[in-house]
């Protein structure tokens, strides 16, 4: 590749997953693409050429190719897509009214050999995103009537396409502004493509293990032995640079000796050899690679370079990568039976999907699942997660009917905005349980790529709550909850019945319910130690049939030191008859046992009552499942979209600011009012004053009563009186100014404003802004130093649903104050929610808003007023989860 041309937009380059799960690269066209364009043209069929150019054109002349390859990246924009170094698609637009025109004509050309892989759709997404950013509002295109595929690309994208027949062609036009429909289409296509790419990893028809040495203690040998011993149903091959006869099957010297089609290569060779092996895999057409070798980015700069080379080689040749430094992959399905991992024994089949970024924790987790009898559907250890991440696995689990719940151990997160979006969709269907390691939320392990963040760790926890994720502290708690949600119904409420033959365990269960916010509405029922099966059956049945009960907690201690299997079967059979969850502490049984099984549900799920060592463990798991059920019942698919917003006006204000100050700046108060006003947020005016006389004059102009206050930053960090409220006369204003100035000026607080007196209320603070890791994020709190000292802030990531806003308000510890206390009436929650909704839409739509603060937002029983506001604009950072499909670690 020659030197990049002037103005070449590197930020437009992206790796993408195509419809068939393979990987391709999108990039801006370059002047050195002339030969590639001509070669691409020669390979196209006469029909494809005619559909693109409306005329037969056997060859693309050097003059035409040069004109196509040289663009200015503003008035004329062109993208190419490559796979395995070959050009497979081209998309371009030409503005019809000069370099700043709002309309542009588009054209696409997709390789005949790559039809049906969604290339046109991906290129349209990227071209539209580029156009929106550059001020293009509309795309137009002329399409021949027989070009149904290209018509489908435009119409199926979710844009409002208009078309008419004119002189033998169909003239199309459509606005390219992102809509709910276009976003839904984009995300659905992304999900399908990423799911397919992971399925190729987890359900391969053929596997080669590279690095199967003579030694029985080697990693490569272990991997091969595990695959063979646990019955992998596909074709299995072994490769080692030095062939040997230690196995009773051939050990090949190279991939060249194998059949042409290999789905998965498991690589266990020293790190310096891995990039070369990956190149051999690419040359042989391998679809995906699992790298268990260590010694990459976690080992220092040299390893980081190796890791980068590994990733670029794999992606350039269309392959997905798990690892490096991975513990492996498992799929327990009967038609796959793949143990491509370092786990000595494959777990039993089940309905729990597992993802881990830690090899050691993966082993501990799988062993724990095995001990509990908790079956696993699929397992992936990401290692350094250079490519395949938890986000990819969640996309797969959305489609995987064999997975009923998901457990994830995360050491870092490269794309939390995308995680939030996908996890929320998955959690609406299946429980997602997450262990997040580290004392610091963002303590990133060596080898993991993560953008820097300026947001407090609490934002991560809030993001998980918003997405419906069940967050736990350790792997033990993860499996406590998993064995409940996999084998029982999700609780429909907080009401609990307690039944058992141990008063001590019953009391412990009741105390735990109180601690975890559950209501004991039935019992505790303390049966005699020697209770009969019938008596136990009748007591538990009464609990299930109580309409005031949502979940049943039982315990049983056999009167003799033997396992009373009969009593366990009684409980299992009974619980299977009701659509209410049941947990137990059953001496002698831990986890998921056939003794507590009660048959198969109509959906094919085994109904088992999970057993816990102590009631506290059972209640903690039940409480987590209950909160999850409450979250799911509150979900609404509709995003908040307040009326009276003007996106274009706000965009114009931001554009003008960055035109005059390319590095960004704080807005003036007039600009703040105009920007927020474009989204229906009215900021009460305040008037700077420098003397008592000027303060009195302003008070006369705006009318009494007024407020005089200092706007110095000092008053935010020191608990000093800086406000004089309810001033009703000129003399009161003058005296207030003099006393405030005497008190505050020696401390450095020398800026004052006069403002109309608002209705007395509870002051709140709404803050928002753009973060490199999270994207836009909104923070809410009550105003005042105590809030800051106690770190009492709530966070959420836009876009919001109405329940998100309610949860954000309620997430702060001081929220009950808003609901009324003493003789105070509750504040107008709807008015406060409206302010939060408008802020969320504003910052979600404009990534140039680096910081925004409404302080204070005065809330009271009849409304909410924004009494102060500040905004800082900066060039956009670039969201990791933007408005076009692009691969990134997550």
Give a concise summary.
By secondary structure, the protein is of the alpha/beta class.
Q: Overview of this structure, please?
A:
With 890 residues, this protein is α/β, with parallel strands linked by helices. The chain folds into five domains: 168 residues, Gcn5-related N-acetyltransferase (GNAT) (Aminopeptidase), CATH 3.40.630.30; 287 residues, Succinyl-CoA synthetase domains (Rossmann fold, 3-Layer(aba) Sandwich); 147 residues, Succinyl-CoA synthetase domains (Rossmann fold); 180 residues, D-amino Acid Aminotransferase, Chain A, domain 1 (2-Layer Sandwich); 73 residues, 2-Layer Sandwich (Dna Ligase, domain 1), CATH 3.30.1490. Helix content is 35%, strand content 23%. The protein contains 26 helices and 38 strands.
Task: Report the span from N to C terminus.
Answer: 30 Å
Number of strands: 38
Indicate the low-confidence ranges by residue numbers: none
Count of alpha and pi helical runs: 26
Mean pLDDT: 91
Measured on Cα atoms, how large is the radius of gyration?
Answer: 32 Å
Strand order of the largest sheet: 1-2-3-4-5-6-8-7
Instruction: Examine the coordinates and then state which fold CATH places here, giving the name of the CATH topology of the largest domain.
Output: Rossmann fold
Shape: flat
How much helical structure, as a percent, in the residues?
Answer: 25-40%
Structural class: alpha/beta
Shape-level CATH architecture of the largest domain: 3-Layer(aba) Sandwich
Number of domains: 5
